[in-house]
Design a protein that fits this description.
- It is a single chain.
- The chain is of the alpha+beta class.
- It contains six helices and four strands; from the N terminus they run E-E-H-E-H-E-H-H-H-H.
- It has a four-stranded mixed β-sheet, covered by helices on one side.
- A hairpin with a 6-residue loop joins strand 1 and strand 2.
- The radius of gyration is 27 Å and the shape is elongated.
- This is CIDE-N domain-containing protein.
Length: 201
């Protein structure tokens, strides 16, 4: 029977760190072998196409997959994400000193190479460095075209997050001032009078 044909597949975890070859005759068969292969729990597993995140949730669809299809195994609330090329930046201490500020930027980029989501955890000073960087100035460190594209994304995201953090800080300062004025009994929310606006020249 067609269902009993054993086919090879490639499986990986959500971070694509663990990659294994596996043979299975059905989706159910594959799911029973995953825990042993990837060292994952056996409950709450979801199978998706590694290429685009399409969920493989029934035997009929599973039977249409080509041999050697790459599958990602998700556990619990894990979500599929596209495979971003890693931005390889390697500097030793002497490079860092010689490059000055550029070395600092390169080290920040190196820290973000495994997960760009970590950019939201950076402090204001680091975000400023990244949002002000000139990707072209790092051409001697980062030569690959895909890496240059990542630098552009990092620059744009840093600027956006920095702006959001500053807006949140401004809002908090205004709230503090408001609460202080209420506590002191000097609450006055009316805007100051503008008596000398638009005077004729």
């Amino acid at each position: 029977m067609e269902q009993d044909i054993i086919r090879p597949y490639k499986i990986c975890d959500v971070n694509r760190d663990k990659k294994k070859g596996i043979v299975a005759s059905s989706l159910e068969d594959l799911l029973t072998k995953v825990p042993d292969k990837l060292g994952m729990p056996s409950e709450n597993l979801t199978v998706v196409l590694e290429s685009d995140g399409t969920e493989v949730d029934d035997e009929e669809y599973f039977s249409t997959l080509d041999p050697d299809t790459s599958l990602m195994i998700l556990h619990g609330n894990e979500k599929w994400a596209p495979n971003m090329p890693k931005c390889q930046v390697s500097l030793d201490q002497t490079d860092d000193i010689a490059l000055g500020g550029k070395g600092q930027v390169a080290n920040l980029v190196g820290r973000l190479q495994h997960n760009l989501c970590h950019i939201s955890l950076l402090g204001g000073q680091d975000l400023e460095l990244l949002s002000d960087m000139d990707p072209d100035s790092l051409a001697d460190i980062v030569t690959d075209r895909d890496n240059r594209i990542i630098l552009e994304h990092i620059k744009e995201a840093s600027g956006r997050i920095l702006l959001e953090k500053r807006q949140a800080q401004d809002a908090m300062e205004l709230l503090k001032l408001y609460h202080q004025s209420v506590a002191n009994g000097t609450e006055d929310l009316t805007p100051p009078k503008q008596e000398r606006v638009n005077e004729p020249v």
